[in-house]
Amino acid sequence: MRKHHIARNQVESWKLCLFGALSGYAMWFTSYPVDIVKSKLQTDKLGAWKYRGSADVIRDTYAKQGIKGFFVGFSPTILRAAPANAATFLAFEWTMRLLNRE
Fold it and tell me: Is DNA-binding among the key words of this record (predicted)?
């Protein structure tokens, strides 16, 4: 198997945007359910707690809403993922090129 090394400054901008968008999708698809659990714990009423911990949130969410409960509000997040992560990837790579960092 041959390895092909491409220098950072040789990667085309459209590819950087594509890689950024795909990485954004992958990140949110895998981390969104965890983010839902975290958000429910953070917004629990102080002193009158509804949840005892993460496992309790998971059990309650699944019992009441099924797997869909872990993806409530996912549409706006995934719509924003592509442009936001594409721009971040592109800006980072352009900055590294300007600084002549390989």
Answer: no
Q: How many domains does the chain have?
A: 1
pTM of the predicted model as reported, rounded to 2 decimal places: 0.75
Q: From CA 73, how far away is CA 77, in angstroms rounded? A: 7
Write the CA distances from 78 to 14, 22, 73, 75, 81, integer angstroms: 20, 11, 9, 5, 5
**pLDDT tens digits along 33-86:** 999 999 999 999 888 889 999 999 999 999 999 999 999 999 999 999 999 999
DSSP state, residue 3:
-
Maximal CA-CA distance, the chain: 61
Query: Residue 53 carries which side chain, given as an amino acid letter?
Result: G
What amino acid occupies position 7?
Answer: A
Report the number of secondary-structure helices (H) and strands (E) in the chain: 3, 0
Residue 82 domain-assigned?
yes
Q: Indicate whether 6 belongs to any domain.
A: no
